[in-house]
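Working notes for the structural subgroup meeting. M.R. asked for a predicted model of this chain before we commit to crystallization trials. I am recording the input and output together here so anyone reviewing the notebook later can reproduce the run.

Input as submitted:
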Amino acid sequence: MARVVLENVAKDFTGPRQQQVGAVRDLHLTVEDGEFLVIVGPSGCGKTTTLRLIAGLETPDRGVITLDGRSLAGVPPKERDVAMVFQNHALLPHLTVFENMAFGLTLRKFPRDEIARRVGHAAEMLGLTGLLDRKPGELSGGEGQRTALGRALVRQPKVFLFDEPLSNLDAPMRLQLRAEIAAVRRQVGATMIYVTHDQAEAMALADRIAVMRQGAIQQVGSPMELYRRPANLFVAGFIGALPMNFFTGALAREDDRLWFTANGSEGFSLPIIDSCAPTLAGCVGQPITLGLRPEHVLLDEPEKGQRPMSALVERVEATGSENLVYLSKAGSLFVGRAPASFSAKAGQTLGVCFTMTKASFFDSITGELLV
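Returned structure, recorded in C-alpha cell form:
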C-alpha cells in the first residue's frame, strides 16, 4: 500500500527583499494507493515545491506528510521509498545507460544478478535494450528521458514522483513518452504523482487532477469532473485544450423568467433554463459570468427556443480535424468549434446560438461556481 496524505502543509521561502513568499499554503491532499494524480497549474504555483516536500528535498514549515500512515517528518530522502524523475535527465555522463539505471541499486549494494534482472526488465519495458552500452552523450532527448524513467523503475519504490519530465521534448516525442508512461503505470501499478503545466498532458494521464494556483489547491477531481464542473473561473479557464468562453453580465427577471444579459452597448440576452433558475434567483442584479465551452457554441445551427444572434468572425484556425472559429459580439471575444468542412472568413457575420443546458454561471466577484 502507498497512500500519501498532506495535511495543512505550508512552505515559505525568503524573497530578494527578505520578504516571506508562500510557495505552498495550507495544502490538504490525499493520493490513494495505486492512483495516478497529476498536479497542474501555471509556473510558480507551488506544484514542484509540493513534489519536493514529498520527496524530502524540502522541509515543510507547517503541516504533516504521511506515507502509509507513517509521518515523513525527519525521514531523509533516501529512506522515504520514493523515486523522482526530474525535468532534467540528471544522468551521469561517464556512465553507460545500464550503469545509470543501476546506480541507485549499486549504492544500496544489491546483488549483481538482481541488478541485472531489474535493469533488463525495465530496459525491455522502455525499449532501451539495445542502448544499454551507450553513454548519455550518444542518446536522443527521448532516450535520455526513458533512461531516467528506467532508473526510477528499477528502484521499485512505493511512490513515483515526476517533475515535468516531458517539458524539454518536442511534441511528437512528448506524445510517445506520454504513452510509454501510461503503459508503465498499467504494468507497475504503483502510486504516481506527476507535475506539469500542460493541462492536455494532465487530462490524458490522470486518474485525478489537482489544480493549483498561488500555492493553494483550487479543485481536485477526475479530468471530466474538472472539465464539466469547474469550481471557479480559474479552473474553467485553465482546464481544456481551449479555455472556457466567458461573458460578463447580470441577471434580470422578465415575464416570470430569468435572463442573462451580457455587458456592452450591444449586449445580448439569453434565457436561463428552468433547472438553474432556483439557484440563480437570488443573484438578480448582481455581476455574473456565463461560461460556455467552445463545443457549446453553435454556428449557423439554431438552438431550440433561441433565435440566432449575429457575431463577427475575427479569424478561423484550421487544425485538420476541425476549424476553430474566433468571434466577437458586444465586446466579448469567444471561440466555437466547427467541422473541417465548415467555411467562414474574417469579417463575415455568422448566426450563433449557445447550448444553455451546458452553461456554467460564476460569481464575477469571487469567481466561484454558482451553478
